[in-house]
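User: hey, got a sec? need AAA domain-containing protein folded
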Amino acid sequence: MKDLIPEQALVCLFGAPNTGKTFIALDIALSVAFGRPALSQDGNSEGNPTSRPVVFVLREALHNIHRRIAAWCDHKKIPRKQAQEHLAHHLLIPDTSDELDIRIDRSTSRRKLIDAIKQRCPNPALIVLDPLVDMMDGDENSARDMSRFVNGLNELRTQLGACVLVIHHQGKYWRPIERGSSVLQAAVDTHIHLLDATKTTRRRKKNANTETKEDNTQKIELEIFKQRDAARSPNIHIELHTVPAPDGLNVPHSLGKVPVWIEADETAQADNATSSKERKAPREAPDRKASPRKQREESRRQKISDFLKTRFKSGNNAPILRQDIEAHFKDTSPEISRTTLHRDLDALAAASDSTITIATTNAKVTVTHKKIEAKTKDLNEIPF
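Assistant: Yep! Here you go:
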């Protein structure tokens, strides 16, 4: 694809479930096989591309692939018989049964695939692997296993001289990042995110109570995350058109969907930008009432502070023994335990007070009045 997918490149297309990843990949593959502009972008291509062989390795919805190809041919107005004869020499869909399990990170399995392609579809221009998780034996979250997979992809494209397009799944919670290790993102030449705004959590909540009408199109967007050797292309807006089954054909619902390049809807684009950028202002913490335990603690420490201020009101800074404080509160506030009393004394000593400073030792407590600058010469206005 001009200005999007270079020749002999390593490309990753990822997106959330049911956003049309396979339909996009199939449109690109069939467009290369028939020598037509991809995504029906007739006005965006120069001349007529050359028809070239394509390999499509599919592990998901394999039973539907021929129906989807028929839908694409009907939408492009290509006669079925003509399409069948042409694709017999230009499209290879390898057998992905358990007996011939294809794992790109296994050297023996990869070698079998390369030999089969050389024999049945020599010199392919494009190899599509759909999806990644079914094409590797290792753990997609492991950097070591993903590195083996990437090395296998590079061997495919160097041995066959083809562009390799890998279809991958998106991470959880609709985050715009592919699943698994970031080794793949670093290795690919082109990184494409398939975005469906209606699938995001924010948009689903927004449209939860709105009435929707039946529509045979689904609007999606290709967001170019990375272009190694060129400037990143602008986002591509696409509609997935549902192709109905011909009358008299025993096929449920429809044949499939075909992606069509459309001009960006300025209103929808502005709405998407606003919805993605808008952020709720942080809520202020509510004024919560202190817990009963906190209230008892504040009341208890206030009693201790008042006692110390009263005891040292005369200005005598001689220390007072802890046992004397214990004796006082044992008589006046027997609910205050000895351990709690000493803990509160240490807490009061650590806290700052505008009028007094409390110093504690293992046996004594000393209260010192802070010097306050009086605004008038009347010393009686100075507290304590």
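Quick note: Residues 292-311 form the longest helix (20 residues). Let me know if you need anything else on AAA domain-containing protein.
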